[in-house]
């Protein structure tokens, strides 16, 4: 058996954006996804990412989230679109968000090419998209941009960081399991709230029906007697006139 080693210069970087998603923040619909060439990320991590994308409506606009093992998810949401990437925990946080900002700017240009310029409401267009991976061709631009951030110590990456002084000290840091559990709890609360609202409407209808029945029992007999008396008087009046 031969043991094949990576040729020097072709070894995968441990710091690059391993997986990048662009998704609709409303429901997590993935518009484009790109993975690194070596595909070293487990399916469990990718599944976590997709679960996370579906819970963004409960989350802040920017956040860093601890994934499985030595990985971190960083994301930012702007105009109804989420830009999220998976990095090694050791990758500089400022540089990760600078990368996401670059992807955001490139995607804005892609939206202009797709839907036109001028007074176009891109958010409305995105909300009407029904198919996943609608912008799948955009993954080539993400791949090109990733190459610029592959080595966080390179002069090119540092110059980008200086040009994009993203303030990240106040960005929240969350735990993935806490978020997923919180989402389950919120969904449970939502189901219970819906059931409670239905029970409340049913109770209101029953209360109205019982109230009507009580009124009939209380005033029904006197009302009937009164109507009979009025009818007799009415008939006597007309018989007297005739």
Automatic annotation (TrEMBL):
SUPFAM superfamilies: SNARE fusion complex, SNARE-like. Its main location: endoplasmic reticulum. Keywords: Coiled coil, Endoplasmic reticulum, ER-Golgi transport, Golgi apparatus, Membrane, Protein transport, Transmembrane, Transmembrane helix, Transport. It comes from the Eukaryota. CDD domains: Longin (cd14824). Belongs to the synaptobrevin family. This is Vesicle-trafficking protein SEC22b. It comes from Noctiluca scintillans (Sea sparkle).
